[in-house]
Amino acid sequence: MAFPQTRLRRLRATRTLRGLVRETHLESADFVYPMFVAHGLDRREPIEAMPGVDRLSIDHAVAEAKEVAELGIPAVLLFGIPAAKDEEGSGAWDDEGIVQLATRAIKEAVPQTLVITDLCLCEYTSHGHCGVLRPDGSVDNDQTLELLSRTAVAQAHAGADIVAPSDMMDGRVGAIRQALDEEGLSDTPILAYSAKFASAFYGPFREAADSTPAFGDRRGYQMDPANGNEAEREARLDVEEGADIVMVKPALPYLDVIRRIKDQTGMPLAAYNVSGEYAMVKAAAAAGYLDERATVLETLTSIRRAGADIVITYHAKDAARWLQ
Ligand code: PBG
Fold first, then answer.
1. For a designed S-S bond to 270, which of 104, 192, 253, 310 qualifies (C-beta 3.0 to 4.6 A apart)?
2. What DSSP designation does 184 have?
3. pTM of the model
4. Helix 275-286 × helix 292-306 angle, to 10°
5. CB of 51 closer than 8 Å to CB of 30
6. What is the mean pLDDT of each run of 10 residues along the chain (324 residues)?
7. Fold for domain 24-323?
8. Catalytic residue among 66, 85, 107, 196
9. How many A from CA of 205 to the centre of ligand 1?
10. Which secondary-structure segment (H or E) carries 247?
11. Number of neighbours of residue 193 by Cβ within 10 angstroms
């Protein structure tokens, strides 16, 4: 018999049939939209390498949060651009700090939207590293934990629904959990950036957040892109310390890591489709090399198929419109 008896193509014949057997679904309910908030009024500053994403003053951020909610996107992730920076990054835990102010304003205007706050010091430190420095210029892990804990408490008191530590210090999830619990904030979940790789794909973000390290790089605390076993260890430790959701970041170059961590932990998993991944698609689409809509939907579907429950992406608003 020359012809195959099994015909997989039978199930591809019509759009309806393809829909019936589809394994992975992409919906606006899976997305988190990241936003950059800054002080001032009526400010909207474009970010060069991220067309369509701007730094927003709080009034614009509130308007954008409303738009996001109307598109069926359940959550925003806030990054702050402080007015001033210092050695310790004190703007991170200031009750009047930019993220705390923006959180209060968004929760008041759009209470049903989940506000997730990025929890790190690099946007607030004058040197741009994610923790406090020792005299020799290296990051002091344990001293940083204290400042991160303070920041988590300030964010949760301002109304953050979820705090998301992205610093990669050892022991931070446990320290933050304990600090929140001691303040009566035991219902605030932690979304841990568990496997965060030292990646070239953060370039546009660092321009946006003005957080490029003044010297050195982040390889002393972020992960080596070569390591998958270590990513599993990072995620396992975060879960033991009390993480409620784990994250892999970036997404596309690490789809295998998403799958491994999902299988290994069984935890709710978020993948961060980062600034450089967004910039690549936008640049290729602007040049006419790629069809933006098809590329974005395929990309986001692949991240879900790899095992992500939640996709954090700058494409969220466009994708939500295309999926309507
Ligand atoms: C830092 C942080 C980074 C991103 C989110 N939080 C970058 C970095 O480590 O420099 C990157 C996000 C993106 O590229 O979209 N705490």
1. 310
2. T
3. 0.96
4. 150
5. no
6. 80 94 97 97 95 98 98 98 94 96 98 97 92 92 95 98 93 97 98 96 91 87 96 97 98 98 98 98 98 98 98 98 97
7. TIM Barrel (3.20.20)
8. 196
9. 6
10. strand 245-249
11. 25
**CB of residue 315 inside a 6 A radius of ligand 1:** no
Q: Is 118 in the pocket of ligand 1 (CB under 6 A)?
A: yes
C-alpha separations of 102 from 54, 115, 160, 255 in Å: 15, 10, 10, 32
CA–CA separation, 312 and 246 (whole Å): 12
Q: Which ligand 1 atom is at minimum distance from the Cα of 198?
A: 9
Record the tokens describing residue 323, joined without a space.
């999926």
Residue 58, CA distances (Å) to 37, 39, 100, 119, 188 in order? 6, 7, 11, 18, 23
Structure tokens at 277: 């991944």
Largest Cα span, the chain: 77
Closest ligand 1 atom to 205 CA: 14
Shortest-distance Cα residue to atom 7 of ligand 1: 202
- Give the Cα separation of 51 and 193 in Å (integer): 25
What is the per-residue burial (b if ≥16 Cβ within 10 Å, else e) of 265-300? bebbbbbbbbbbbbbbbbeebeeeebeeeebbbebb
Q: Which of 62, 32, 50 is nearest to 201 (CA)?
A: 50
